[in-house]
Design brief:
This protein has four helices and no strands. By secondary structure, it is an all-alpha fold. It has a domain of 35 residues. The longest helix is centred in the middle third of the chain and has 13 residues. The N and C termini lie far apart (30 Å).
Length: 84
């Protein structure tokens, strides 16, 4: 896959308001959502498994998702999301 493969999926989530405080936004919300979705599609169950997936696929994820600085702590973000 290349960067041209995932934008439509990521674009679907661009309307979601980021509930985090500005100083806590070390990682783009779309990257956190993308990693979470991909991990769940790969049968990850729970936040630890999602983090493990992110670490195991880091090289590939850097090619298809917005840039991040390391591995986001995904468990803190989805709880505060309220999609329309």
């Amino acid at each position: 896959m290349n960067k041209q493969s995932l934008p439509p999926l990521i674009d679907f989530f661009k309307h979601i308001k980021d509930p985090r405080i500005e100083r806590n936004k070390a990682y783009p919300l779309l990257a956190v959502i993308g990693i979470t979705l991909l991990a769940v599609m790969a049968f990850a169950e729970g936040w630890e498994a999602i983090e493990t997936y992110g670490k195991a696929t880091e090289g590939w994820l850097k090619k298809v998702l917005p840039p991040t600085k390391g591995h986001p702590k995904t468990c803190r973000v989805p709880v505060g999301l309220h999609p329309a």
